[in-house]
């Protein structure tokens, strides 16, 4: 028998979360993302430079002189209503399901199945994008960091991938590339995060170069994207949104702004495409609001079992460094799960763990292959008693992450290859 640790990934939870985010976006107060008079749904954010009028200009121009066919219409789906001038006023934003990092640890193929209703998939790795095409995904695929060398553009062309354009090097590579048919791109604005993208002063020149490539038939659509650094915090998005608005004012093309935090907190700015990741896996992007409160369900559960118990006398220590000492005689359970499985080593005494359906606490330091739990509230526990580390029985990955001083994202991505993953309906 293998070690009893395993993860489960629920396809229905992934699908449920996608539908929940979609519904949340659709029910944004007043101006749900779209349409001619919809103002791109920005009015809801107070004090934003540019305001609704600027957004309306963006929206009205969104028909785009140079996208004879949208990415999806080329794949035989309906044209994206939100990017055409004739869009109905209620055109909902489209969703790129972000599946980078092996779908936040859930597995690309599983995520593809769970997100079959997504409008597109977004990721980083060319090889993962090719895997999605080969597994049958015909809709748009966005490479969030663009390409890394000129040869990548051959694959972009061959597999109809949409790329972020973030540097002058990207523009040079496109200039020298040959495509069998025009490629769709999203030009990325560095609106304040100072990670990827063109600074405001250079953005319009980059757009002009892309427009030139479009006229030469290399590029179909040029969209506009930026990424918010504080959508989850008190600073919000208004400053970056204001920069985005003024820099892109009057330029044609579809717009993509929102990660999970912005999609959940500012659904009224969703525009043409949103890019949620973490929310789709049922974990929260916020410190102060749970995924459950948005109706999201954990897609991954990490489970194991007790492989030993110890009766520790008062004053006895548990684990490396004797970091925990029993204040009185207590029974300890040893769980087959350690940091080499992806459990965070910085989770200290008190981190919640569910043993035999009962919530208890981790004690002492997490070892490479094991961790110890307090069996005081579970007197009947024995070798073989099931243990939930996160993602089921009311224990969220976010609670465990918080106890370890990190975020749910890191825990989900870090589940180790040695942990078997079972797909669930
Ligand atoms: C990772 C990523 C996202 C998704 O972020 P979440 O916080 O997981 O929703 C969106 N856009 C870009 C550019 C990203 O890199």
Automatic annotation (TrEMBL):
<keyword id="KW-0413">Isomerase</keyword>
<dbReference type="Pfam" id="PF00842">
    <property type="entry name" value="Ala_racemase_C"/>
</dbReference>
<feature type="active site" description="Proton acceptor; specific for L-alanine">
    <location>
        <position position="320"/>
    </location>
</feature>
<keyword id="KW-0663">Pyridoxal phosphate</keyword>
<dbReference type="InterPro" id="IPR029066">
    <property type="entry name" value="PLP-binding_barrel"/>
</dbReference>
<comment type="pathway">
    <text>Amino-acid biosynthesis; D-alanine biosynthesis; D-alanine from L-alanine: step 1/1.</text>
</comment>
<feature type="active site" description="Proton acceptor; specific for D-alanine">
    <location>
        <position position="100"/>
    </location>
</feature>
<dbReference type="InterPro" id="IPR001608">
    <property type="entry name" value="Ala_racemase_N"/>
</dbReference>
<dbReference type="GO" id="GO:0005829">
    <property type="term" value="C:cytosol"/>
</dbReference>
<dbReference type="InterPro" id="IPR009006">
    <property type="entry name" value="Ala_racemase/Decarboxylase_C"/>
</dbReference>
<feature type="compositionally biased region" description="Low complexity">
    <location>
        <begin position="78"/>
        <end position="87"/>
    </location>
</feature>
<dbReference type="InterPro" id="IPR020622">
    <property type="entry name" value="Ala_racemase_pyridoxalP-BS"/>
</dbReference>
<comment type="similarity">
    <text>Belongs to the alanine racemase family.</text>
</comment>
<feature type="domain" description="Alanine racemase C-terminal">
    <location>
        <begin position="299"/>
        <end position="424"/>
    </location>
</feature>
<dbReference type="InterPro" id="IPR011079">
    <property type="entry name" value="Ala_racemase_C"/>
</dbReference>
<feature type="region of interest" description="Disordered">
    <location>
        <begin position="62"/>
        <end position="87"/>
    </location>
</feature>
<dbReference type="GO" id="GO:0030632">
    <property type="term" value="P:D-alanine biosynthetic process"/>
</dbReference>
<dbReference type="GO" id="GO:0008784">
    <property type="term" value="F:alanine racemase activity"/>
</dbReference>
<dbReference type="Pfam" id="PF01168">
    <property type="entry name" value="Ala_racemase_N"/>
</dbReference>
<feature type="binding site">
    <location>
        <position position="195"/>
    </location>
    <ligand>
        <name>substrate</name>
    </ligand>
</feature>
<comment type="function">
    <text>Catalyzes the interconversion of L-alanine and D-alanine. May also act on other amino acids.</text>
</comment>
<dbReference type="InterPro" id="IPR000821">
    <property type="entry name" value="Ala_racemase"/>
</dbReference>
<protein>
    <recommendedName>
        <fullName>Alanine racemase</fullName>
        <ecNumber>5.1.1.1</ecNumber>
    </recommendedName>
</protein>
<feature type="binding site">
    <location>
        <position position="368"/>
    </location>
    <ligand>
        <name>substrate</name>
    </ligand>
</feature>
<feature type="modified residue" description="N6-(pyridoxal phosphate)lysine">
    <location>
        <position position="100"/>
    </location>
</feature>
<dbReference type="GO" id="GO:0030170">
    <property type="term" value="F:pyridoxal phosphate binding"/>
</dbReference>
